[in-house]
Design brief:
Blueprint: E1 3-7, H1 12-22, E2 27-31, H2 48-57, E3 66-75, E4 82-83, H3 86-92, H4 96-106, E5 112-122, E6 130-140, E7 156-158, H5 169-172, H6 177-190
Parallel strand pairs: 1-2, 1-3
Antiparallel strand pairs: 3-4, 3-5, 5-6, 6-7
Length: 191
């Protein structure tokens, strides 16, 4: 019998990645759209943990565990930015193509970057939150490549030389920050 769990996201790519890790463990992984739920959470936390917990807590009333994530692209030349504000950074420039150009320009001297993902799991409304972090070191590419993934994937290459814009979702999950955090979550849930 499947155990139910909610991934508090509307992002289908993230949901597919989570299902790839948790379904083999017997979990039926719902996304917000699957249950007709809306998310009105304002992501104003001071770090990834606070934002992830806020999103998970918004649905902790459900009769099964809930998890959420927060992630960002941390660029060395920007002192770790845009980080928490990655989506807002892209939106402020009119979307990803313009954000790609800006990041490429800003990282001409130092292209080091990393993706960070923090997952917050709440096993019940009154339970203490559990956090699982994944980090993927890499660099900003000089031009976008590929159409896979989402967000900044087409301009990011992992330290293993894997261009996220060229990888299938299954391949990406072996290298990505979210894949690494999901592996930790799956390991915990399997115990």
């Amino acid at each position: 019998m499947n155990r139910e769990i909610l991934f508090a996201t509307h992002n289908r790519g993230k949901l597919l990645e989570a299902r790839n890790f948790l379904s083999p463990l017997g979990y039926l992984v719902y996304g917000l759209d699957d249950l007709g739920l809306e998310s009105e959470v304002v992501e104003d936390g001071k770090n990834y943990e606070e934002n992830a917990e806020k999103k998970a807590r918004a649905f902790a009333y459900l009769p099964f565990p809930v998890f959420s994530d927060d992630s960002g692209l941390e660029v060395k030349a920007l002192g770790g930015g845009p980080g928490l504000y990655s989506a807002r950074f892209a939106a402020s420039l009119g979307g990803c193509p313009a954000a790609f150009e800006k990041l490429i320009e800003l990282t001409e001297e130092d292209d080091r970057a990393r993706f960070v993902c923090t997952i917050c799991l709440l096993e019940g409304k009154k339970e203490k939150p559990l956090f699982f972090e994944g980090v993927c070191e890499g660099k900003i590419l000089r031009e976008p490549h590929g159409e896979h993934g989402f967000g900044f994937d087409p301009i990011f290459s992992s330290s293993e030389g894997k261009n996220f814009g060229l990888l299938s979702e299954e391949e990406k999950s072996h290298y990505s920050h979210r894949g690494r955090a999901l592996l930790k979550l799956a390991t915990y849930l399997a115990i």
